[in-house]
Amino acid sequence: xxxxxxxxxxxxxxxxxxxxxxxxxxxxxxxxxxxxxxxxxxxxxxxxxxxxxxxxxxxxxxxxxxxxxxxxxxxxxxxxxxxxxxxxxxxxxxxxxxxxxxxxxxxxxxxxxxxxxxxxxxxxxxxxxxxxxxxxxxxxxxxxxxxxxxxxxxxxxxxxxx
Length: 162
Description:
This protein is α+β, with helices and mostly antiparallel strands. It has helices at residues 2-6, 38-47, 50-53, 62-69; strands at 27-29, 57-60, 81-84, 87-90, 93-97, 106-109, 114-118, 123-127, 138-142, 145-149, 155-159.
């Protein structure tokens, strides 16, 4: 999960944070630290190309969501967050939560445009010898995982600094 979000692509998988975000092109820098405004959230949505909006989801951590987004109201004083049978939505887009997203940062994008694979089958080995003294069986699992953002334009970011 950390690599899908924060991976640099240099000796590790590439995550959505490794995209180069440019203010007013595919990124919005918040005027107040960690606290987006309704207008800034509208700007984030407006920067996402329309073809990716159908599958778009927000990616945000709990602290930013509950502390800085949940209370935002639109110009008509209506909440912008809805609880849709246990799925939170910001301005109609579903919300994904991750503790690996930095405080004050949020992404909106089509996460189907992140390509991930296992380069070989997951391997699980078992040993009864290694835990013989303790009457235990030891297991070891290994998986070689890689991912990349296939289409950079499918993501936009809002944050304290772009």
